[in-house]
Amino acid sequence: MISRLHYISQETADKSHLQNIEEACQAGVDWVQLRVKNKSDNEVLAIATEAKEICKKYKAKLIINDHVAIAKKVKANGVHLGKEDMDPAEAREILGDRPYIGGTANTWEDVERLAMAGVDYIGLGPFRDTSTKENLSPILGIKGISAILNNMIIGDIQVPIIAIGGIQTEDIFDLQLSGCHGVAVASLINLSDNKKETVNDINYCLPDGEF
Ligand SMILES: Cc1ncc(COP(=O)(O)OP(=O)(O)O)c(N)n1
Ligand SMILES: Cc1ncsc1CCOP(=O)(O)O
Ligand SMILES: [Mg+2]
């Protein structure tokens, strides 16, 4: 089952990826995406190996951003791949049927392509501006996200959509009403002074149950 809250790891001013992952798991997240930028493959592998242990302790799923070989090596639960990353079909060949494969969409055409490629979920964004990612694609806003979700209904495309990009707690009801399965957030949790409360607030806005 694809969780409705995808937590995305970050290094913050005083905390490493691993410290932030442990705190997010303590606060109740059950889906962790390790998103390490600007480090060597060996460094990412070392962090991913420890992240796997933390996630195992808290029974959270671990998804590796960008690095298919590392996901395979640490037996992660899946990978997330954007347009500049490995093709999802190639990743499926390497990883086999079980691991989740997520893809990034910024447009309706991306959603159609990823659905054809058989991804397990689609990260759709950016919902709004954010400093967490460089070189953002054009902002979709609630109108852009809703239009794409309407096209999915018309085209009978049923891949779970995870909205991403600058999401705040007060956005989540609207995103969920527009048909999103869930949300992916980094700074909302990583910069929170009370991560448990933040995670509870987010989960309160998301429906229970399976897709
Ligand atoms: C859930 C989710 N959606 C989208 C992204 C963005 O992936 P990508 O386009 O490959 O950009 P980077 O994260 O690699 O900078 C994501 N990571 N997660
Ligand atoms: C990885 C990614 N892809 C599109 S926006 C984004 C960053 C999400 O982080 P935040 O929730 O802090 O805006
Ligand atoms: Mg990527």
Automatic annotation (TrEMBL):
Binding site for 4-amino-2-methyl-5-(diphosphooxymethyl)pyrimidine: Q33, L34, R35, V36, K37, N65, T104, K133
Catalytic reactions on record: 2-[(2R,5Z)-2-carboxy-4-methylthiazol-5(2H)-ylidene]ethyl phosphate + 4-amino-2-methyl-5-(diphosphooxymethyl)pyrimidine + 2 H(+) = thiamine phosphate + CO2 + diphosphate; 2-(2-carboxy-4-methylthiazol-5-yl)ethyl phosphate + 4-amino-2-methyl-5-(diphosphooxymethyl)pyrimidine + 2 H(+) = thiamine phosphate + CO2 + diphosphate; 4-methyl-5-(2-phosphooxyethyl)-thiazole + 4-amino-2-methyl-5-(diphosphooxymethyl)pyrimidine + H(+) = thiamine phosphate + diphosphate
GO biological process: thiamine biosynthetic process; thiamine diphosphate biosynthetic process
Ranges where the Thiamine phosphate synthase/TenI domain occurs: 8-189
SUPFAM superfamilies for this protein: Thiamin phosphate synthase (SSF51391)
Membrane-spanning intervals of the chain: none
Cofactor note: Binds 1 Mg(2+) ion per subunit.
EC top class, as a word: transferase
Binding annotation for Mg(2+): D66, D85
Residues binding 2-[(2R,5Z)-2-carboxy-4-methylthiazol-5(2H)-ylidene]ethyl phosphate: T130, S131, T132, G166
Entry GO terms, CC: cytoplasm
Pathway: Cofactor biosynthesis; thiamine diphosphate biosynthesis; thiamine phosphate from 4-amino-2-methyl-5-diphosphomethylpyrimidine and 4-methyl-5-(2-phosphoethyl)-thiazole: step 1/1
Keyword Transferase: yes
Needed cofactors: Mg(2+)
Record's keyword terms, sorted: Magnesium, Metal-binding, Thiamine biosynthesis, Transferase
EC number: 2.5.1.3
Highest rank taxon of the organism: Bacteria
Stored InterPro entries: Aldolase_TIM, ThiamineP_synth_sf, ThiamineP_synth_TenI, TMP_synthase
Any one GO molecular function term: magnesium ion binding
Alphabetical list of Pfam families matching this protein: TMP-TENI (PF02581)
Function description: Condenses 4-methyl-5-(beta-hydroxyethyl)thiazole monophosphate (THZ-P) and 2-methyl-4-amino-5-hydroxymethyl pyrimidine pyrophosphate (HMP-PP) to form thiamine monophosphate (TMP).
The family this protein is said to belong to: Belongs to the thiamine-phosphate synthase family.
Stated name of the protein: Thiamine-phosphate synthase
Organism of provenance: Reichenbachiella agariperforans
